[in-house]
Amino acid sequence: MIETDSVGIVKRQFYTFAEPPNEMPLESGEKLGPITLAYETYGMLNEQKSNAILIAHALSGDSHVAGYYSQQDKKPGWWDFMIGPGRAIDTNTYFVICTNALAGCQGSTGPSSINPATGNRYNLSFPVVTIGDMVQAQTHLIDHLGIKRLLSVIGGSMGGMQALEWAIEYPDRVVSCIPHATTTRLNAQGIAFHEVGRQAIYADPDWRNGNYLDEGVVPEKGLSVARMLAHITYLSEESMHQKFGRRLREKERYGYDFSLDFEVESYLRHQGASFVQRFDANTYLYITKAIDYFDLQQDYGSLESAFKNVMAKVLVFSFTSDWLFPTAQNKEIVQALQVHRKHVSFVEFDLPYGHDSFLIKNPKQEKLVADFLRCVYDEVK
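Above: the chain's sequence. Below: its structure in C-alpha coordinate form.
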Protein backbone atom coordinates (compact mmCIF):
# COMPACT_ATOMS: atom_id res chain seq x y z
CA MET A 1 0.00 0.00 0.00
CA ILE A 2 1.26 3.48 -0.90
CA GLU A 3 1.61 5.71 2.17
CA THR A 4 -0.65 8.75 2.45
CA ASP A 5 2.38 11.06 2.69
CA SER A 6 4.02 9.61 -0.41
CA VAL A 7 4.25 11.56 -3.65
CA GLY A 8 2.31 8.60 -5.04
CA ILE A 9 2.46 7.42 -8.65
CA VAL A 10 5.17 9.22 -10.61
CA LYS A 11 6.36 9.27 -14.20
CA ARG A 12 9.80 9.52 -15.75
CA GLN A 13 10.20 12.43 -18.18
CA PHE A 14 12.82 13.23 -20.80
CA TYR A 15 14.43 16.39 -22.14
CA THR A 16 16.71 16.47 -25.19
CA PHE A 17 19.09 19.34 -26.01
CA ALA A 18 22.50 20.06 -27.57
CA GLU A 19 21.30 19.08 -31.00
CA PRO A 20 24.04 19.32 -33.68
CA PRO A 21 25.58 21.69 -34.55
CA ASN A 22 25.12 23.01 -30.98
CA GLU A 23 26.67 20.09 -29.13
CA MET A 24 27.63 20.58 -25.47
CA PRO A 25 31.38 21.09 -24.91
CA LEU A 26 32.90 18.71 -22.36
CA GLU A 27 35.83 19.22 -20.00
CA SER A 28 37.84 16.72 -22.06
CA GLY A 29 37.67 19.06 -25.04
CA GLU A 30 35.22 16.86 -26.92
CA LYS A 31 31.61 17.74 -27.69
CA LEU A 32 28.47 15.69 -27.18
CA GLY A 33 25.01 15.99 -28.64
CA PRO A 34 22.20 15.45 -28.81
CA ILE A 35 21.85 14.74 -25.08
CA THR A 36 18.77 13.37 -23.36
CA LEU A 37 18.31 13.62 -19.60
CA ALA A 38 15.76 11.44 -17.83
CA TYR A 39 14.19 13.22 -14.87
CA GLU A 40 11.29 13.18 -12.45
CA THR A 41 9.52 16.02 -10.67
CA TYR A 42 7.34 16.14 -7.56
CA GLY A 43 5.22 18.98 -6.21
CA MET A 44 4.36 22.19 -8.05
CA LEU A 45 6.59 25.01 -9.23
CA ASN A 46 5.27 28.23 -7.71
CA GLU A 47 4.48 31.35 -9.71
CA GLN A 48 7.77 33.00 -8.76
CA LYS A 49 9.66 29.78 -9.61
CA SER A 50 11.50 30.19 -6.31
CA ASN A 51 10.76 26.81 -4.69
CA ALA A 52 12.73 24.41 -6.91
CA ILE A 53 15.06 21.86 -5.32
CA LEU A 54 17.42 19.67 -7.34
CA ILE A 55 18.37 16.28 -5.92
CA ALA A 56 21.57 14.68 -7.29
CA HIS A 57 22.08 10.93 -7.02
CA ALA A 58 25.08 8.78 -6.08
CA LEU A 59 26.99 6.34 -8.30
CA SER A 60 24.33 3.67 -8.66
CA GLY A 61 21.29 5.94 -8.32
CA ASP A 62 18.89 7.35 -10.89
CA SER A 63 16.12 9.91 -11.31
CA HIS A 64 13.60 7.80 -9.37
CA VAL A 65 14.18 9.43 -6.00
CA ALA A 66 10.62 9.22 -4.65
CA GLY A 67 7.22 7.66 -5.24
CA TYR A 68 6.17 4.60 -7.21
CA TYR A 69 5.73 3.83 -10.90
CA SER A 70 2.59 1.78 -10.30
CA GLN A 71 0.29 0.53 -7.56
CA GLN A 72 2.07 -2.82 -7.82
CA ASP A 73 5.55 -1.39 -7.12
CA LYS A 74 6.96 -2.86 -3.95
CA LYS A 75 9.91 -0.48 -3.68
CA PRO A 76 9.70 3.33 -3.88
CA GLY A 77 12.37 5.77 -5.04
CA TRP A 78 15.77 5.65 -3.37
CA TRP A 79 15.18 8.64 -0.99
CA ASP A 80 11.43 8.29 -0.71
CA PHE A 81 11.31 8.74 3.07
CA MET A 82 12.76 12.25 2.68
CA ILE A 83 10.43 13.53 -0.06
CA GLY A 84 6.66 13.94 -0.01
CA PRO A 85 3.78 15.92 1.50
CA GLY A 86 4.80 16.88 5.02
CA ARG A 87 8.13 15.07 4.78
CA ALA A 88 11.54 16.70 5.23
CA ILE A 89 11.57 17.88 1.62
CA ASP A 90 7.92 18.85 1.63
CA THR A 91 6.27 18.63 -1.79
CA ASN A 92 3.40 20.76 -0.51
CA THR A 93 5.95 23.57 -0.45
CA TYR A 94 8.78 22.63 -2.81
CA PHE A 95 9.10 21.59 -6.44
CA VAL A 96 11.59 18.71 -6.46
CA ILE A 97 13.62 17.64 -9.50
CA CYS A 98 15.92 14.64 -9.87
CA THR A 99 17.80 13.72 -13.04
CA ASN A 100 19.57 10.57 -14.11
CA ALA A 101 23.17 11.75 -14.52
CA LEU A 102 24.80 12.15 -17.90
CA ALA A 103 26.44 8.79 -18.81
CA GLY A 104 23.76 7.01 -16.78
CA CYS A 105 21.80 3.98 -17.87
CA GLN A 106 18.29 4.82 -16.70
CA GLY A 107 17.13 7.00 -19.58
CA SER A 108 19.91 9.59 -19.87
CA THR A 109 22.42 9.59 -22.71
CA GLY A 110 25.27 7.23 -21.93
CA PRO A 111 27.51 4.57 -23.46
CA SER A 112 24.57 2.21 -24.10
CA SER A 113 22.67 4.90 -26.02
CA ILE A 114 22.44 5.00 -29.81
CA ASN A 115 24.78 7.49 -31.44
CA PRO A 116 22.51 9.16 -34.04
CA ALA A 117 25.53 9.95 -36.21
CA THR A 118 26.28 6.26 -36.72
CA GLY A 119 23.06 4.44 -35.83
CA ASN A 120 25.06 2.22 -33.46
CA ARG A 121 25.52 2.22 -29.70
CA TYR A 122 28.25 4.51 -28.42
CA ASN A 123 29.83 1.81 -26.23
CA LEU A 124 33.42 2.94 -25.54
CA SER A 125 33.27 5.64 -28.23
CA PHE A 126 31.18 7.63 -25.72
CA PRO A 127 33.36 10.48 -24.45
CA VAL A 128 34.60 10.39 -20.87
CA VAL A 129 32.55 12.84 -18.82
CA THR A 130 33.17 14.59 -15.50
CA ILE A 131 31.08 15.72 -12.55
CA GLY A 132 31.26 19.19 -14.10
CA ASP A 133 29.82 17.85 -17.36
CA MET A 134 26.97 16.19 -15.46
CA VAL A 135 26.14 19.49 -13.77
CA GLN A 136 26.42 21.47 -17.01
CA ALA A 137 23.88 19.09 -18.55
CA GLN A 138 21.55 19.69 -15.59
CA THR A 139 21.70 23.45 -16.18
CA HIS A 140 20.13 22.92 -19.60
CA LEU A 141 17.18 21.12 -18.01
CA ILE A 142 16.81 23.80 -15.34
CA ASP A 143 16.80 26.45 -18.07
CA HIS A 144 14.18 24.44 -19.96
CA LEU A 145 11.98 24.44 -16.85
CA GLY A 146 12.29 28.23 -16.67
CA ILE A 147 14.07 28.23 -13.32
CA LYS A 148 16.69 30.93 -12.84
CA ARG A 149 17.71 30.04 -9.26
CA LEU A 150 17.43 26.79 -7.38
CA LEU A 151 16.29 27.05 -3.80
CA SER A 152 18.64 24.19 -3.00
CA VAL A 153 20.86 21.52 -4.55
CA ILE A 154 21.04 18.42 -2.38
CA GLY A 155 23.16 15.30 -2.79
CA GLY A 156 25.10 12.61 -0.96
CA SER A 157 28.27 10.85 -2.11
CA MET A 158 28.64 11.54 -5.87
CA GLY A 159 25.48 13.62 -5.52
CA GLY A 160 27.32 15.76 -2.99
CA MET A 161 30.07 16.35 -5.54
CA GLN A 162 27.43 17.61 -7.97
CA ALA A 163 25.94 19.86 -5.30
CA LEU A 164 29.37 21.39 -4.63
CA GLU A 165 29.95 21.85 -8.37
CA TRP A 166 26.65 23.71 -8.65
CA ALA A 167 27.48 26.06 -5.77
CA ILE A 168 30.98 26.76 -7.10
CA GLU A 169 30.40 27.00 -10.86
CA TYR A 170 26.95 28.62 -10.79
CA PRO A 171 26.98 30.69 -7.58
CA ASP A 172 24.23 33.07 -8.69
CA ARG A 173 21.88 30.16 -9.44
CA VAL A 174 21.99 28.38 -6.07
CA VAL A 175 20.36 29.79 -2.94
CA SER A 176 21.42 26.90 -0.72
CA CYS A 177 23.35 23.66 -0.92
CA ILE A 178 23.25 20.46 1.17
CA PRO A 179 26.23 18.20 0.34
CA HIS A 180 26.57 15.21 2.65
CA ALA A 181 28.66 12.06 3.06
CA THR A 182 30.88 13.46 0.33
CA THR A 183 34.33 14.84 -0.41
CA THR A 184 36.11 17.56 -2.36
CA ARG A 185 38.33 14.97 -4.07
CA LEU A 186 38.54 11.22 -4.17
CA ASN A 187 41.58 9.88 -2.33
CA ALA A 188 43.91 7.11 -3.49
CA GLN A 189 41.94 4.48 -1.56
CA GLY A 190 38.71 5.42 -3.32
CA ILE A 191 40.38 5.40 -6.73
CA ALA A 192 41.86 2.00 -5.90
CA PHE A 193 38.45 0.51 -5.10
CA HIS A 194 37.08 1.85 -8.38
CA GLU A 195 39.99 0.44 -10.35
CA VAL A 196 39.52 -3.04 -8.89
CA GLY A 197 35.85 -2.85 -9.87
CA ARG A 198 36.72 -1.80 -13.40
CA GLN A 199 39.29 -4.55 -13.71
CA ALA A 200 36.66 -7.09 -12.66
CA ILE A 201 34.48 -5.91 -15.56
CA TYR A 202 37.38 -5.95 -18.03
CA ALA A 203 38.27 -9.51 -16.96
CA ASP A 204 34.81 -10.85 -17.74
CA PRO A 205 35.02 -12.53 -21.17
CA ASP A 206 31.51 -11.28 -21.91
CA TRP A 207 32.62 -7.65 -21.69
CA ARG A 208 33.87 -7.95 -25.28
CA ASN A 209 35.83 -4.66 -25.15
CA GLY A 210 32.65 -2.81 -24.29
CA ASN A 211 30.63 -4.18 -27.23
CA TYR A 212 28.69 -6.79 -25.23
CA LEU A 213 25.19 -5.43 -25.97
CA ASP A 214 25.89 -5.56 -29.71
CA GLU A 215 26.88 -9.21 -29.31
CA GLY A 216 23.87 -10.15 -27.20
CA VAL A 217 25.69 -10.78 -23.90
CA VAL A 218 26.24 -8.99 -20.57
CA PRO A 219 29.38 -9.17 -18.36
CA GLU A 220 27.29 -10.22 -15.38
CA LYS A 221 30.08 -11.84 -13.37
CA GLY A 222 32.44 -8.90 -13.67
CA LEU A 223 29.80 -6.27 -12.89
CA SER A 224 28.52 -8.36 -9.99
CA VAL A 225 31.99 -8.55 -8.43
CA ALA A 226 32.46 -4.80 -8.93
CA ARG A 227 29.20 -4.19 -7.09
CA MET A 228 30.07 -6.59 -4.27
CA LEU A 229 33.36 -4.80 -3.68
CA ALA A 230 31.78 -1.34 -3.82
CA HIS A 231 28.95 -2.35 -1.51
CA ILE A 232 31.42 -3.34 1.21
CA THR A 233 32.73 0.25 1.16
CA TYR A 234 29.21 1.58 1.72
CA LEU A 235 28.82 -0.37 4.97
CA SER A 236 30.80 -0.39 8.21
CA GLU A 237 32.45 -3.10 10.27
CA GLU A 238 29.92 -2.54 13.05
CA SER A 239 26.88 -2.72 10.78
CA MET A 240 28.19 -5.87 9.11
CA HIS A 241 28.84 -7.43 12.51
CA GLN A 242 25.34 -6.57 13.72
CA LYS A 243 23.66 -7.76 10.54
CA PHE A 244 25.71 -10.89 9.82
CA GLY A 245 28.45 -11.60 12.32
CA ARG A 246 29.85 -15.01 11.48
CA ARG A 247 26.45 -16.63 11.11
CA LEU A 248 26.26 -19.56 8.73
CA ARG A 249 23.77 -19.66 5.87
CA GLU A 250 21.25 -22.51 6.20
CA LYS A 251 23.76 -24.89 7.79
CA GLU A 252 25.08 -25.72 11.23
CA ARG A 253 28.73 -26.42 10.35
CA TYR A 254 31.32 -25.43 7.76
CA GLY A 255 31.07 -27.18 4.42
CA TYR A 256 34.84 -27.62 4.14
CA ASP A 257 34.57 -26.79 0.45
CA PHE A 258 34.04 -23.65 -1.63
CA SER A 259 30.28 -23.56 -1.41
CA LEU A 260 28.50 -20.72 0.34
CA ASP A 261 29.04 -20.86 4.10
CA PHE A 262 28.34 -17.45 5.64
CA GLU A 263 25.33 -15.13 5.65
CA VAL A 264 27.51 -12.21 4.55
CA GLU A 265 28.58 -14.16 1.46
CA SER A 266 24.94 -14.75 0.54
CA TYR A 267 24.14 -11.06 1.05
CA LEU A 268 26.95 -9.89 -1.21
CA ARG A 269 26.04 -12.37 -3.92
CA HIS A 270 22.46 -11.11 -3.78
CA GLN A 271 23.63 -7.50 -4.06
CA GLY A 272 25.77 -8.35 -7.08
CA ALA A 273 23.05 -10.38 -8.82
CA SER A 274 20.36 -7.72 -8.32
CA PHE A 275 22.66 -4.92 -9.47
CA VAL A 276 23.32 -6.46 -12.88
CA GLN A 277 19.57 -6.48 -13.53
CA ARG A 278 19.36 -2.68 -13.40
CA PHE A 279 22.80 -1.28 -14.23
CA ASP A 280 25.03 -1.15 -17.28
CA ALA A 281 28.66 -2.25 -17.05
CA ASN A 282 30.03 0.48 -19.32
CA THR A 283 28.10 3.10 -17.34
CA TYR A 284 29.86 1.78 -14.23
CA LEU A 285 33.20 2.41 -15.93
CA TYR A 286 32.29 5.95 -16.98
CA ILE A 287 30.74 7.08 -13.71
CA THR A 288 33.54 5.72 -11.52
CA LYS A 289 36.03 7.50 -13.77
CA ALA A 290 34.07 10.77 -13.40
CA ILE A 291 34.25 10.41 -9.62
CA ASP A 292 37.98 9.65 -9.81
CA TYR A 293 38.58 12.88 -11.75
CA PHE A 294 36.69 15.08 -9.26
CA ASP A 295 39.32 17.19 -7.47
CA LEU A 296 38.39 20.73 -6.47
CA GLN A 297 41.84 21.42 -5.06
CA GLN A 298 43.54 20.61 -8.35
CA ASP A 299 40.93 22.41 -10.44
CA TYR A 300 41.14 25.67 -8.49
CA GLY A 301 44.63 25.57 -6.98
CA SER A 302 43.30 25.25 -3.43
CA LEU A 303 40.04 24.51 -1.65
CA GLU A 304 39.92 28.08 -0.38
CA SER A 305 40.04 29.35 -3.98
CA ALA A 306 37.38 26.84 -5.04
CA PHE A 307 34.84 28.15 -2.55
CA LYS A 308 35.74 31.84 -2.80
CA ASN A 309 32.72 32.89 -4.89
CA VAL A 310 30.08 30.63 -3.34
CA MET A 311 26.93 32.58 -2.50
CA ALA A 312 24.75 29.72 -1.26
CA LYS A 313 24.02 28.94 2.34
CA VAL A 314 25.54 25.52 2.92
CA LEU A 315 24.61 22.67 5.23
CA VAL A 316 27.09 19.78 5.44
CA PHE A 317 26.47 16.59 7.36
CA SER A 318 28.46 13.40 7.79
CA PHE A 319 28.39 10.12 9.70
CA THR A 320 30.78 8.73 12.31
CA SER A 321 30.93 5.29 10.69
CA ASP A 322 31.49 6.46 7.10
CA TRP A 323 35.04 5.35 6.27
CA LEU A 324 34.64 5.90 2.52
CA PHE A 325 34.09 9.68 2.82
CA PRO A 326 34.79 10.23 6.53
CA THR A 327 33.87 13.25 8.60
CA ALA A 328 37.33 14.78 8.19
CA GLN A 329 36.78 15.04 4.42
CA ASN A 330 33.36 16.64 4.89
CA LYS A 331 34.87 19.13 7.35
CA GLU A 332 37.31 20.26 4.66
CA ILE A 333 34.30 21.75 2.86
CA VAL A 334 33.24 23.59 6.00
CA GLN A 335 36.72 24.92 6.72
CA ALA A 336 37.22 26.17 3.16
CA LEU A 337 33.93 28.06 3.33
CA GLN A 338 34.72 29.49 6.77
CA VAL A 339 37.92 31.03 5.42
CA HIS A 340 35.71 33.32 3.34
CA ARG A 341 33.13 33.78 6.13
CA LYS A 342 30.48 31.98 4.11
CA HIS A 343 27.22 30.87 5.73
CA VAL A 344 27.91 27.21 6.53
CA SER A 345 26.60 24.76 9.12
CA PHE A 346 27.88 21.29 9.98
CA VAL A 347 26.43 18.26 11.78
CA GLU A 348 27.95 14.83 12.37
CA PHE A 349 25.50 11.99 13.04
CA ASP A 350 26.57 9.12 15.28
CA LEU A 351 25.21 6.16 13.32
CA PRO A 352 26.66 2.68 12.72
CA TYR A 353 25.55 2.13 9.12
CA GLY A 354 28.59 3.41 7.24
CA HIS A 355 28.57 5.50 4.08
CA ASP A 356 24.99 4.48 3.26
CA SER A 357 23.71 6.07 6.48
CA PHE A 358 22.13 8.96 4.58
CA LEU A 359 19.93 6.46 2.71
CA ILE A 360 18.51 5.03 5.94
CA LYS A 361 15.55 6.65 7.68
CA ASN A 362 16.78 8.91 10.47
CA PRO A 363 14.44 11.42 12.18
CA LYS A 364 17.33 13.69 13.16
CA GLN A 365 18.53 13.92 9.56
CA GLU A 366 14.99 14.57 8.37
CA LYS A 367 14.46 17.39 10.90
CA LEU A 368 17.84 18.95 10.12
CA VAL A 369 17.10 19.15 6.40
CA ALA A 370 13.50 20.27 6.93
CA ASP A 371 14.49 23.10 9.30
CA PHE A 372 17.33 24.28 7.06
CA LEU A 373 15.14 24.39 3.95
CA ARG A 374 12.34 26.17 5.81
CA CYS A 375 14.73 28.90 6.98
CA VAL A 376 16.13 29.37 3.48
CA TYR A 377 12.68 29.41 1.87
CA ASP A 378 11.30 31.89 4.39
CA GLU A 379 14.05 34.31 3.37
CA VAL A 380 13.33 34.14 -0.36
CA LYS A 381 9.54 34.14 -0.28
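Residues 191-287 form a domain with the Rna Polymerase Sigma Factor; Chain: A fold (CATH 1.10.1740.110).
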